[in-house]
Amino acid sequence: MTEHRLFPYLLILASGGIWGATFSLALIATAGGAHPLGLSAWHVLLTAAIMLVICLLGRITLFDFKNLRHYVVLALVGITAPNLFYYYAAPHLSAGILAITVSTVPLFTYAIMLVLRFESVIARRLVGIVLGMIAILLLVIPDQGLSSDDASFWILLVVLCSVLYAIENVYISRGIPPLIDIRELLFASNVVASLIQFPLAIYLDLDESWTWLASDAGLAIGGIAVGSSLAYAMFFYTIKSSGPVFASQCAYVVTISGVIWGIMIFSEQHTLWVWISVIVMLLGLLLVNPDNGDEANEINAAATTESIS
Q1: I want to staple 287 with a disulfide (CB 3.0 to 4.6 A). Which of 128, 198, 208, 301 is the partner?
Q2: What is the spatial distance between Cα 220 and Cα 226, in angstroms, rounded to a whole number?
Q3: pTM value > 0.70
Q4: 307, 69, 10: which is closest to 169 by C-alpha?
């Protein structure tokens, strides 16, 4: 059966809309006062369980000890560290600002590739990086009317999450054989992250019992795990069917929907500086987004995936 020509666009809108909602869910999860390590531990365990189902349905290799080094690197750089930073910062920021800052992942990915000389210098994409940095400054320098007195620090902490995700993207591109399925990497790295985080949380007496999952915060964490996994599945299918360049446009939907979800759920009101930042960030993404068939296409598409996974 032939797919309708609008089907890929619907996938982009659906996956981006779901990913955008995870920022608001993160605010709900952190509002209950649970420790970030406890939140992250349940997050990665639930994600691993969902990815297990996805891998079994797709008959994907679950865990290969020959790839253990890759799993550990991704578990530390792409999951544990950014998750903790993200959940520490979330209570101090709005969902809209979280969406804007995390959308810098494609920009940092290209910047790192450029520094490591994996990419050639393209003026248009350099301008995109500059615009992305200006967008961040528009959030950090003016007073955004946030409840936290040190909001700029928390914004920069979330930007650090984006840098870590970008490092992970480059590692996946240049350090991991392309024959390893990304679904295997997501499942196995979340398993390793669980083995790191849960024992540490139990040792520090920060773990939440399984009954906590029925609370608002627990349901929000479950929603993040389910939503991001579902969005990833649609995104992965879009890459396979329509190509990474088309799929990378999901970054725009994530940014816009993240702001809209925050307004709908929390009645967030943003200053003029935030709206200008959104426009500048979208322009930066437009310029950095590759428009040909080079390897950067896959990096930029993967950047969108890792920014929300």
Answers
A1: 128
A2: 10
A3: yes
A4: 307
Run of H or E residues at 288:
helix 272-288
Q: Does residue 239 have a pLDDT over 80?
A: no
Whole-number pLDDT of residue 307: 46
Domain boundaries, the chain: 7-306
SS3 content of the chain, % helix, strand, coil (to 5): 80, 0, 20
Written as six digits, the tokens of 41 are 């531990």
Give the span between the Cα atoms of 65 and 72, in whole angstroms: 11
Sequence-distant (≥ 6) Cβ neighbours of residue 149 within 8 angstroms: none
Does residue 143 surpass a pLDDT of 60?
yes
* Higher local confidence (pLDDT), 112 or 121: 112
* CB atoms closer than 10 angstroms to residue 33: 7
Asked if residue 168 lies in contact with residue 44, where contact means CB atoms within 8 angstroms, the answer is no
Task: Please report, for residues 78, 88, 248, the alpha-carbon distance to residue 46 in angstroms, rounded to integers and kept in the order given.
Answer: 16, 20, 26
Residues 298, 82, 284, 295, Cα dihedral to 10°: -10
Task: Measure the CA–CA gap between 77 and 188, rounded to whole angstroms.
Answer: 14
**Structure token digits, residue 128:** 């995109």
Residue 188 near residue 71, CB atoms below 8 Å: yes
